[in-house]
Amino acid sequence: MKKLRFRFAAYFTVGLLIFLIYFVILFISLIKLMYPGAAQILVYVAGAPGGYLPVILIFAFCFITGGILFSLFFVQPLSFIIGVISKLSKGDYAIDSKAFKNYFLYREVVENIEALGKALREAEIEREQMDVAKNNWLAGVSHDLKTPLSYINGYSSLLLNENHSFSEEERRTYLGEIYNKGAYIEKLIDDLNLTFFIDDAGKVQLKYAQIEMVGFLQNLLADVANNPKAEKQELGFHTELEHLNVVIDEILMYRAIYNLLINCVEHNPEGTKIDIALAQRQNCICIDITDNGVGMDQKTADNIFDKYYSGKNEQTQGRGLGLFIVRQIIAAQGGSISITSTLGKGTSFHIKLNFGGC
Q: Do 35 and 66 share a domain, yes or no?
């Protein structure tokens, strides 16, 4: 800004001087042209025959033309800049960079407007992509709700059919399916509620408690191993620590890590090795969840934690809620999560819980 002020002052001073020189030369030239016999211009003007009207007109002409030329240099660029800002406000982000280069005086202003236009254009593209992803996500959530509801309605209508009798085993099977689908809907609704509740990490009311992290992870891994979906996966836990006491929200952290492990189970073939590694580096606790499964491409890895993202070949339920919730839970407790993945070789989730600096 200092350079801009200095340049503006210098240009204004030089422009004003040129304006005065132009005015004097043109004024004297016009007086001589109209009154060629005038020997002393100033004396002649003071006593010009025919009154002062011709002199006033000449003065006004010189002043107006000089003022127009003077203002073109300073005002015309401002007019152009105002027009560009007006276009930006209406959503037109196409800026003629070549036209901008002609206005050296306002170079910093021009550069900032170009940067603003580029940022707004990128934001508009990102917003459009987000809208598409959001619509796809909402459609997916709707599908996720309708599928179990169709089971519930179907089994319920069968049980309510008075013209058909069912064995006790059939009744228990149907009621079990109804219960499981109802539990799934309840979990999905809880995920939705938690998603919007922790959209702003500052709004989360965490219930901190001191837990022993080694035992916590071992018990969590055992719960995952008892899940029928994981019965054909190889689960492991590695750490050099015997005990590690940490103050966190146990329920939310359990949910976050459990979601990560189930994600590894559901998206990999049978026989995949899934390991948890726990380490402490100064005041940073590192939890790595690694599998040697199918992996993912870079685009999927870059967007996997986004709220509305789901891969093109996504066939499972959840539609991107799980990993978004994971990131929000960890962020709410002052931590971070990242991912590294290679297509065909596996995926690793890296959790860092910061307790004083990593």
A: yes
Beta bridge pairs of residue 236:
275
For the record, the structure tokens of 152 come out as 């519930």
Q: Which of 140-144, 178-182, 248-252 is predicted least confidently? A: 140-144
Q: Is residue 346 within 8 Å of residue 292, measured between CB atoms?
A: yes
Supply angle C-alpha 332, 335, 336, rounded to 5. 110
- What are the tens digits of pLDDT across the range 315-355? 333 444 668 788 888 988 889 999 999 998 999 999 999 86
Question: Residue 113 domain-assigned?
Answer: no
Please report the pLDDT score of residue 355 as a whole number. Answer: 67
8 A C-beta contact, residue 203 and residue 329: no
Task: Output the six-digit token pair for 32.
Answer: 């001589």
In a domain, 293, yes or no: yes
Query: Is 104 inside any structural domain?
Result: no
Number of folded domains in the chain?
A: 3
Query: What pLDDT score does 68 carry?
Result: 78
Q: Averaged over 122-141, what is the pLDDT?
A: 75
Q: What is the 8-class DSSP label of residue 95?
A: -
Supply the range of the domain harboring residue 26.
Answer: 2-92
Does any domain span residue 120?
no
| Cα-Cα end-to-end distance for the chain | 39
Residues 175 and 221 in one domain: no
d(CA 358, CA 354): 6
Give the SS3 label for residue 166: coil
CA nearest to 107, candidates 38, 5, 183, 21: 5
Based on the fold, state whether residues 320 and 208 are members of the same structural domain. Answer: yes
Q: Are residues 161 and 246 in the same domain?
A: no
Q: What pTM does this model have? A: 0.53
Nearest to 152 by CA among 186, 189, 203, 109: 186
Nearest one of 308, 294, 283 to 346, comparing CA atoms: 294
Task: For residue 172, give the nearest of 184, 180, 183, 164 by alpha carbon.
Answer: 180
